[in-house]
Design a protein that fits this description.
GMP Synthetase, Chain A, domain 3; about 40% helix; nine-stranded mixed β-sheet; alpha/beta; Rossmann fold; five-stranded parallel β-sheet; single chain
Length: about 600
């Protein structure tokens, strides 16, 4: 079916909904709103400024900003010229930023925020092709910078009319963006996506969620990543006001202030929410602790009913209603109290976590996709939801499983290729035109897709057994005492794990045993803590095949982070980096095992 351009979708939405608060941002202690008309005026003013700088059809423009209204203003200002935007993660290193801008050949860069502008200026000398820099939200900075505020201040009806005229000439098959993948290994690849690639996904993947003006969205995942970007289009094109959050560290407070009805998140978000719930329960004493423990028992009994739609005895339903008033409703209130739908993507969500949230009446619809597929391939939705899967393929997208278990895809959302690299593009597709996802999965008899792991992440033990680390790690993180985990064992005799304790929950349990720790390092090294975590590992091992079981583990005194280089933008593990940084710890786990040291993972 034909799909429209992104600019047509935006203009249609502005004219249809005329929202008084399309974009929301926090100024000091208050949340302020920008109307749809004002947003369009800003877009038109910036687009005119870009045109005066010589930006036209096919030119690349860098887009470097945290989540804020200016991100979408710049996006649509660029797209309305038939130009191509190149989004950059707002905490990107100067070295990687320079690589992306130089590789894409960007001639202009739009940057928002003082911190981001300073990061860009650090590598300005390394950007010979960049002719102009437009900066927003940094009036004190100078030095050959053009200021966004001046460009949009004078925009009026004439500029809006000119923008509408130019935007109407943008064809759906024109290239809209080059998104450089964060990559768990190797150098970034520039994924080329057209307007139709993105609008097909926005239309086909989210229709059943029925987003509309009655909703309010919180945008906190990086807009530079195609997952949050497509969600932003879904919101704007369906009249949903968007509250932008620049720092993910502020999500908890923003949920209480904004009280959104919809949001997109990654598994790490849900892991942290779950861990905080368990931490609060562990800290409770007396009657409150008894009530919490009872509510968790009721929750486990209610999972078949709440998560899978099966029948439940009357006493379970009655107990759930009481537990809901006493405990579950308070958990929902901590997320703002109005969430009707979370989308989960970026990585597989542990079944245990999905069951927990559905059991407390928080609907989490898990989906699956890639940057190369704009991004959604499959998704659960209110009409077809199966916990533990990533849903059925969305309309007009086909999925098949290769002989080796790899998920193959084709459809209107599939990329045009990798910018400037025909060899990578050729390798990404089968001879008959299916995109190789690099993921291992299976389709059940009802058409629901399950994703096991990344093909490159599969561990092959010395005995030739394949182990998928992600499901094991997800099960470990379902423990209230484990914050993070990385499973290791490629070419080894057995599997081991690097485990990050949930320091607050472990400390709370330790106090009950009369123990106090002065630091995380002391906690991680203590035999009592090792025994506590060991019992969690043993419980998981009982559910695994013998070759999958974790024979040994090490406790780390710090978590994996993006700044530390161990996580991608969407908080997935960079396994090669972790194995390199923790090589001494890993070797100690295998110290008394006679085996050749494996070559570094590629």
């Amino acid at each position: 079916m034909p799909y429209p351009s992104l600019t047509k979708k935006l203009l249609d939405a502005v004219d249809r909904f005329r929202q008084p608060q399309t974009q929301m941002f926090k100024a000091g202690e208050r949340w302020e709103a920008i109307s749809a008309e004002e947003m369009l005026r800003h877009i038109a003013g910036l687009s005119r400024g870009l045109a005066e700088l010589g930006v036209g059809v096919g030119d690349r423009v860098g887009l470097f900003s945290a989540n804020r209204p200016e991100w979408h203003v710049a996006d649509f200002a660029i797209l309305g010229l038939g130009a191509i935007d190149v989004p950059i993660y707002f905490r990107e290193s100067p070295e990687r930023m320079a690589y992306i801008l130089n590789h894409s050949g960007a001639k202009v860069v739009f940057v928002a925020g003082v911190e981001q502008a300073q990061r860009l200026l650090e590598c300005r000398a390394q950007l010979p092709a960049v002719e102009h820099v437009i900066v927003a939200g940094a009036p004190e900075l100078d030095g050959n910078l053009l200021h966004y505020e001046a460009l949009v201040a004078a925009a009026g009806d004439a500029e809006i009319a000119a923008y509408r005229e130019r935007a109407a000439q943008v064809a759906p098959d024109q290239l809209a963006t080059i998104v450089y993948t964060s990559g768990t290994t190797g150098e970034p690849k520039g994924v080329m996506l057209t307007h139709a690639n993105l609008t097909s996904n926005e239309i086909d993947a989210f229709e059943t969620l029925e987003y509309g003006p009655r909703d309010l969205a919180l945008s906190f995942l990086p807009l530079s990543h195609v997952y949050e970007r497509i969600m932003g289009y879904v919101y704007l094109f369906n009249g949903v006001p968007v509250a932008y959050l620049e720092r993910m560290e502020d999500v908890a407070q923003a949920l209480l202030e904004v009280r959104p009805t919809v949001a997109a998140a990654v598994p790490r978000f849900f892991e942290k929410v779950y861990a905080n719930v368990m931490e609060s329960g562990q800290k409770a004493v007396g009657y409150r602790r008894q009530v919490f423990d009872w509510a968790m028992h009721v929750l486990r009994e209610a999972i078949p009913w709440r998560a899978y739609g099966r029948t439940a005895p009357a006493d379970v339903k009655l107990s759930w209603q009481v537990a809901d008033r006493l405990v579950y409703s308070r958990i929902r209130a901590g997320l703002g109290g109005r969430i009707r739908a979370f989308c989960s993507g970026g990585a597989p969500l542990a079944r245990e976590l999905a069951e927990f949230f559905w059991a407390i009446d928080i609907h989490v619809y898990q989906g699956y996709g890639l940057t190369e597929t704009s991004p959604v391939i499959a998704s659960n939705n209110p009409l077809a939801n199966r916990v533990g899967t990533v849903g059925r393929p969305i309309p007009h997208v086909e999925v098949r499983i290769a002989d080796d278990g790899e998920i193959l895809v084709r459809g209107p959302c599939v990329m045009q290729g990798y910018y400037g690299n025909t060899e990578w593009t050729r390798e990404a597709f089968t001879e008959d035109g299916w995109l190789r996802t690099g993921d291992i999965g299976r389709l059940d008899e009802y058409g629901y897709l399950s994703v096991t792991d990344r093909k490159k992440d599969l561990l092959k033990t010395a005995a030739g057994k394949f182990v998928a680390p992600q499901p094991i790690e997800n099960s470990l993180k379902a423990s209230p005492f484990i914050s993070n985990a990385a499973v290791v064992g490629d070419k080894r005799k057995f599997v081991v794990a690097l485990i990050v304790p949930h320091f607050e929950n472990v400390a709370a349990r330790a106090r009950e045993a009369g123990l106090e720790f002065s630091s995380n390092a002391e906690m991680a090294a203590h035999p009592w803590v090792r025994e506590l975590i060991g019992k969690e590992v043993e419980a998981l091992n009982a559910r695994l095949a013998q070759y999958e079981t974790i024979k040994r583990f090490a406790l780390l005194d710090h978590d994996f982070t993006f700044d530390g280089g161990q996580l991608t933008h969407t908080l997935k593990l960079k396994r090669r980096v972790i194995e390199q940084q923790c090589c001494d710890v890993i070797e100690q786990l295998y110290a008394d095992v006679e085996e050749p040291r494996p070559a570094p993972r590629k």
